[in-house]
Amino acid sequence: MVTDQLRNGYDVVVVGGGAAGLSGALMLARARRSVVVIDAGAPRNAPAEGVHGLLARDGIRPAELLERGRAEVRGYGGHVVPGEVGAVAREDDREDTGFAVTLADGRTVRARRLLVATGVVDELPDIPGLRDRWGRDVLHCPYCHGWEVRDQAIGVLAGGPLAVHQALLFRQWSADVTLLSHTMAPPTGQEAERLAARGVSVVDGEVASLEIVEDRLVGVRLSSGALVSRQALVVAPRMVARAGFLAELGLRPAEHPRGVGEHIPSDATGRTDVPGVWIAGNVTDLVAQVGNVAAAAAAVAAQINADLVDEDTRRAVAAWRDPFSAESEARVCERVTGDRRHGL
């Protein structure tokens, strides 16, 4: 695998090398910005056989999609570097200064702007055997996996306020859907009526384990010992943003309004409360699919470039007004350094 070397400084450091991070980096590289993607190499969808619902790339293997994305970023002069970000800090106390990004192995790189696209961690129910099936026959998203389990016997594990909604969604793909109340009380009132009207059965009792035969899910075993035959199991993981390294800047995860986990809030353009730090993908939009996060990151990258254009213009105006200013001297030094680097 080709690995790029870190330079001293970039216009933008993109933290996260998934679909969002690579899409943002591609847009920035095409805008002739110096950009590096720091990729920890742990994509959330790695266990899945394919990415679905992505126009012209439906069913593409997650690893292949990322491999193509890295090649495209590099094709426009962007860098993609394996590594994990351990900390981010301002270079000094002023809000208009850049950032020092420190990797877990001690390497440091500087950036004028940050684009955070680190995604989330799925916190799954503590049921023996469940995590090993994640992304195979233990699923969460009907639009990602519903077609692949169509007409099968599907169990929906109740684990939060959206359990009934999730069961009704999967009813679109199969007539054999069972809601497993697990550690929650069985639905009553209007919720029970809606499930009954759609033919969704409800089984009370805690799920103790999964039953696997010849590497295939065949059912779930209740704590009572009863076996509920199922071919697929739907869970609702708690999704938590991978963003601990932002704490020093004052950015911390907040509870998502829908109660599905913790995200880093941002405005509609991807701008966070910390000047110079932008965000895109599942780290801020927990339920977005691959196509959504890629498109959102491209839009955020355009906003970052516009922000940098404004800064570049302010500096140019200041230097034009006073050719002996600090800004003018810095530009001359930058030009001379660049000329030497290119052998001029």
TrEMBL record:
Listed GO MF terms: thioredoxin-disulfide reductase (NADPH) activity
Domain FAD/NAD(P)-binding residue range list: 10-294
Keyword Oxidoreductase: yes
Annotated keywords: Flavoprotein, Membrane, Oxidoreductase, Transmembrane, Transmembrane helix
Entry's transmembrane regions: 12-29
Keyword Membrane: yes
Domain of life: Bacteria
Reactions mediated catalytically: [thioredoxin]-dithiol + NADP(+) = [thioredoxin]-disulfide + NADPH + H(+)
UniProt cross-references to InterPro entries, sorted A to Z: FAD/NAD-bd_sf (IPR036188), FAD/NAD-binding_dom (IPR023753), Ferredoxin-NADP_redctase_2 (IPR050097)
One Pfam family it belongs to: Pyr_redox_2
Gene3D superfamilies in the record: FAD/NAD(P)-binding domain
PANTHER family per record: THIOREDOXIN REDUCTASE 1-RELATED-RELATED (PTHR48105)
Protein name: Thioredoxin reductase
